[in-house]
Amino acid sequence: MIKVGIVGGTGYSGVELLRLLAQHSGVELTAITSRKEAGMAVADLFPSLRGRIGLTFSDPANAPLTSCDVVFFATPNGVAMGEARSLVEAGVRIVDISADFRIRDVGEWEKWYRMKHAAPELVAEAVYGLPEVNRAAISKARVVANPGCYPTAVQLGFLPLIEANVVDLDHLIADAKSGVSGAGRKAETHILFSEASDNFAAYGVPGHRHWPEILQGLAQATGKRVGLTFVPHLAPMIRGIHATLYARITGDVDFQALYESRYATEPFVDVLPPGRHPDTRSVRAANVCRIAVHRPHDGDMLVVLAVIDNLVKGAAGQAVQNMNLMFGMDETTGLVQLPVIP
Amino acid sequence: MIKVGIVGGTGYSGVELLRLLAQHSGVELTAITSRKEAGMAVADLFPSLRGRIGLTFSDPANAPLTSCDVVFFATPNGVAMGEARSLVEAGVRIVDISADFRIRDVGEWEKWYRMKHAAPELVAEAVYGLPEVNRAAISKARVVANPGCYPTAVQLGFLPLIEANVVDLDHLIADAKSGVSGAGRKAETHILFSEASDNFAAYGVPGHRHWPEILQGLAQATGKRVGLTFVPHLAPMIRGIHATLYARITGDVDFQALYESRYATEPFVDVLPPGRHPDTRSVRAANVCRIAVHRPHDGDMLVVLAVIDNLVKGAAGQAVQNMNLMFGMDETTGLVQLPVIP
Amino acid sequence: MIKVGIVGGTGYSGVELLRLLAQHSGVELTAITSRKEAGMAVADLFPSLRGRIGLTFSDPANAPLTSCDVVFFATPNGVAMGEARSLVEAGVRIVDISADFRIRDVGEWEKWYRMKHAAPELVAEAVYGLPEVNRAAISKARVVANPGCYPTAVQLGFLPLIEANVVDLDHLIADAKSGVSGAGRKAETHILFSEASDNFAAYGVPGHRHWPEILQGLAQATGKRVGLTFVPHLAPMIRGIHATLYARITGDVDFQALYESRYATEPFVDVLPPGRHPDTRSVRAANVCRIAVHRPHDGDMLVVLAVIDNLVKGAAGQAVQNMNLMFGMDETTGLVQLPVIP
Amino acid sequence: MIKVGIVGGTGYSGVELLRLLAQHSGVELTAITSRKEAGMAVADLFPSLRGRIGLTFSDPANAPLTSCDVVFFATPNGVAMGEARSLVEAGVRIVDISADFRIRDVGEWEKWYRMKHAAPELVAEAVYGLPEVNRAAISKARVVANPGCYPTAVQLGFLPLIEANVVDLDHLIADAKSGVSGAGRKAETHILFSEASDNFAAYGVPGHRHWPEILQGLAQATGKRVGLTFVPHLAPMIRGIHATLYARITGDVDFQALYESRYATEPFVDVLPPGRHPDTRSVRAANVCRIAVHRPHDGDMLVVLAVIDNLVKGAAGQAVQNMNLMFGMDETTGLVQLPVIP
């Protein structure tokens, strides 16, 4: 049994991680920290876990994290980079669900996240945790940077096109819609029920932190810089990301076959038959990305639809998938729950 | 492995049963019928099941139901009573999720369900499938009548009081709120998104079919007729029942202790500590009933709050629980999924 | 034209008041204050008002409130009581949408609101602004205490029964459900979209501030203390209150006729025909209370269903109705907008 | 007072038309038809109209439509084309909210709507009712084809760019999101609350009937055929359309100034200041289109955000606006209700 610690377990990624790990056959949950809720039973904060999670939140200062095999950071950005080094030196492997180790260009990271990076050397070492791209490296990594929710959906949707070099790489468009849980469990006015319900809006059009992360991933796949317009939207639902991707066709191939072939052996990517439209509930609470490929009116614009649950394949589920790889377990362990519909 | 058949798998109870059975270690899904969708792959209708359920809907006429050990009816009312006898005679055991076998008084049933009962002798034999009351009888039953969603929540909420005879049994009140999935997957105007969303209303105040079912259960617990006012409401959420129960106190006991003691060994009933208010999401997608007991202002009115997921403990989950009992499996097999929050 | 000021215009009662007053033919909006947003154009905070409200939030210290004919307080509890006296002395009349002047027993108020009252003499003078009860007094009042949202629905629902003395006044039950906007526009975790959506729960069962307010109103109607169990619930919708009221019948009258007669001349109370169930959307964004009366199974328990929009008849709309009465305008001025469905 | 008739008043466009006309000072509602609900009081079907609309649904055969000045068709596609001619010949002017007269190329219409057109000569005569383009022609029209909801938002969003010829007209992209009421008040499974809630999906990517309508409008503005990829999505909200438009910049102008100038005198189009993101609730229940223009990272891709309420500016409100123009009334009569937030 792998000993697992969680730093920052009171947000949505944290509680989703708890849900998944409590049903994982290969782990022993050893410690969970929260400065604010230290001393409180986890199941008092989240009654859904009553009878299943006996742990109490520890103060980060006292938590037995160094005796863990792996520690997940489900913290706000800027925390993991401060605490990772000492854990790594103690032999603990790390999966950071926050953004601290995602951007390899530290200057770029500092510009978007508006703080000085505390551990640039770990950025250099960290492996970007998208198993569909970096499976081998993840399995050996000491630090895994778990991808953002939008970047997971957008990259999985674009990758076959980019790798095959069959679309105009200078004018990619990702029109992405996210459920409100993507904004976290923070007391902020704009994500109140009465503000976000029965409402729809774009945000961050001038610039969003996930844009450089996506650019980095796509550039790595093609070997050069790409052009991407990325527009995120807030949709009145709890979970789910729907990425609608547009790319101008430059090379004529069988796009359906391209996608099916690229993801044929992937356990968590499902390419739908031609003509289908994936809905976000078809992946609700499950570690799956479903993708459909359309070429409307046989024109020169390809439309790709990709859906994930932002808290599972977009956060905690992918983190568990990465942990499974890191410790040589079957990649799907603890991740076989079916989507919950309706 | 137990061979399982499902009659009528295209509604919400049916698809929820599929979700649970696909994750159940002791069953082999053998047949699923739908007159309307015969020939269609189950996963084409419900993409959430892609890669996990390989079955195709069979026409009821050809389905190999008699070779099953157990058949679930997830059909509209009036279907199971017509098909149950031949299955029972073939040695197949039955869990009916519809209402056909719930009311022991056939005349009363016919009044509320407005049709002639086709199998009164099976009504006499059927066991009401509320494990917290009838566990022993269920384990030996050939036909189990799976309780309605409201009746499950209301009975579990009232039973300790009734059995202990500490409240006025002539003036019980159950103010119950249900998510819209309780109305089924039927194309009806009043449950359209644009009608039911951002809206709240009572319905069926003059009379609702679950009223006689609840009355029957409570009367059985006390040995005499009780008086109950039952007001169901439609709440703008997909899943969940919240029953708010009112009873005038006639005998002064420690109500918290009464509830904790009554349900101490129940795997799927969770009595909350004093002062808590269960929310429906704390049982979302899980086979749990959570209950809290309040005595406001130390007055003579007791308030009991009980929540379930109407599709799990209120339908498909309880059906699996009953199946587990009928076949001597651990009662919790396949039912340990944690609630999905947020 | 009446000169109107608003103190605290950034919450939901405030912005709803702006919506209504902008369409009111008899008023001139003169000042609106917000300590936090001083200097910001109202339409910058609420783009729905662009082109229609030209005002800028003033700092409360500088706002020309004393030159107004009437000032509305749409503030958190505890603000109006500190500022009302000087305005009243300057000849300004007041409609307080907060709770500061609702409870006549100052000690009781201080117990529930956990602060010392700053203006007990104005409590004594203030008129409780439920026009269906206090119309004449309101028209002459200097200070009107606008009722709470739950108290409006519950009192309008119970009043005919209480005044006619035909039910057991010791065991009244009000099971009330509110949309989330009733909790205000405050950054609090429990009313986040991801917490409150697709969820349902009771709260405040041990005690809620609206309980003494309702008790006071019902007691005034009958001349003696009544007994009431009040259970509020949070429903996943933006607007709306649905009160389900239970009373044991002691005097046999034609209840439908009783209600129709009591509210025959009321412009904003609509008694539905027998057998109907009002839904909250039928009053969405309108200053109406709809009521239905049921006697299930001809038993001895009466069930009354009452719905309002908590922000209109439960707050800003009733405040405008009170203003109309205070200034001798037609009571319905500015309040004839039709409900918005779907 | 203009005498108004409505054919087909039981859908969402119909009831929204009733809400608006009931508050319109210049009309007298004379007849409303519904084959299915003939004889029923309108306010019995829609309790929100109780006390405000006294009409009863008439059978279409007997309704006094020819004595009306104007008749609105709020019918399914294919009805208006059969009934319009006789009304026009009787001197009645027509606003068709359905799609019968929107596409000038009858063959194209027949292909998309899968029926033979019954009145091609009226198609030739009909004026496309987008006042921001065709105001003068509308004022003299006998038949106005009220635009579709998506086409209204997409055209208003693209028009300034097209007219100024400053973007690549061969590769326009419209990623549009609609509330569920856009699908109408029809009993269909996919728009049930339990299907559409907490869910998001694209639909109609291979082809949607609003695509040729938008193409026609944009082509008319530029004088030649344009290329457009149009992807509609179903969002879990009742009302609202959010169109996110992408166009590659070919001519460098001040885009903010271009939009402000184009719509400077339009009463119902609001161009937001730079940097803003319109949300659909900012136009909820109001006849307004709000638009924002972005050029992310100063690149060569322009992003335009346009929101409307699909039932108001996207249907009934625009229909009333057209009627106002046709009868020489102030264009804003009856359309000044403020958006309802929250």
Strand percentage of chain A lies at 15-25%
User: Would you count the extended β strands of chain A for me?
Assistant: 13
Give the overall average pLDDT of chain A.
97
CATH architecture descriptor of the largest domain in chain A: 2-Layer Sandwich
Would you identify the regions of chain A where 5 or more consecutive residues have pLDDT less than 50?
Answer: none
CATH superfamily of the largest domain in chain A: Dihydrodipicolinate Reductase, domain 2
Inertia-based shape of chain A:
globular
Structural class, from secondary structure content of chain A?
alpha/beta
Q: Give the helices and strands of chain A as they follow along the chain.
A: EHEHEHEHHEHEHEHEHEEHEEEH
Please state the oligomeric state of the protein chains shown.
homotetramer
**What count of helical segments of chain A does DSSP give?**
11
What's the CATH topology name of the largest domain in chain A?
Dihydrodipicolinate Reductase, domain 2
Cα-atom radius of gyration of chain A: 19 Å
- For this structure, what is the CATH class of the largest domain in chain A? Alpha Beta
The number of domains of chain A: 2
Strand order of the largest sheet of chain A: 8-9-7-10-13-12-11
The N- to C-terminal Cα distance of chain A equals: 35 Å
For the biggest sheet of chain A, the summary is:
7 strands, mixed
Task: State the helicity of chain A in percent bands.
Answer: 25-40%
Largest inter-chain interface? A-D, 49 and 49 residues
